[in-house]
Amino acid sequence: ALKVTGGEVCFDAVKFAYHPDRPILKGISLTVAAGQRVALVGPSGSGKSTIGRLLFRFYDVTGGAIRIDGQDLRDVTQQSLHDAIGVVPQDTVLFNDTIRYNIAYGRADATEAEIVAAAKAAKIHDFVMSLPEGYDTAVGERGLKLSGGEKQRVGIARTLLKNPPILLLDEATSALDTQTERDIQDSLNAMGEGRTVITIAHRLSTIADADCIVVLEKGEIVEEGTHEAL
Ligand code: ATP
Ligand code: MG
């Protein structure tokens, strides 16, 4: 099982191809120190989401290695890896159940107080309390009764409740209104406290806040540095 001591993530000369004739990542070397926040940017198709999929081990690298606190992902159980990494995807999938169920998904043992604390940190609690049925509100098929920003904040609350040492965020490319964007940025910043955060960034605010920005192009890192330096 993976034993997370600090949450350092190391990509060591990582190569990957979905198909042998078409290399996607051509030797990515990047170390994200424990507690550091890295923003991954680059054109569409450059391989950003692929890096996330490899970290979660949806696929194995075809060259090099990925290590968390020195442990090769291929040497740890899938369960322990998934416990260590919280993923906030562009489109959070909600279940046709209540808001409470959706926040507590994966943490069936969570108390009401823990659920409310996670919802507050994700800036969704006030919205939930404004609904006639509160946490018992049914979100509908695929969460259709909630807006995109509300769904994402439910997903953030779910991840907060899971409390993983490493976070992988894939930001939505779609435009949000400024208040929603600010709310989500606040909850993401709160969530990042004391964790290693890798964000596939589309928002300028995220990029400006990152400790390090990594620019990917055609499967290679072409630039790396702080917002000021780049
Ligand atoms: P975007 O900004 O549009 O989300 P990205 O940088 O996240 O782009 P990836 O999703 O990592 O890009 O894709 C990198 C390349 O790999 C693309 O050319 C894409 O077509 C290809 N690709 C992605 N997923 C698969 C797959 N399952 N099978 C084959 N090729 C894939
Ligand atoms: Mg992507």
From TrEMBL:
Subcellular location as annotated: Cell membrane
ABC transporter domain mapped to chain residues: 9-230
Domain of life: Bacteria
Protein name (Swiss-Prot/TrEMBL): ABC transporter ATP-binding protein/permease
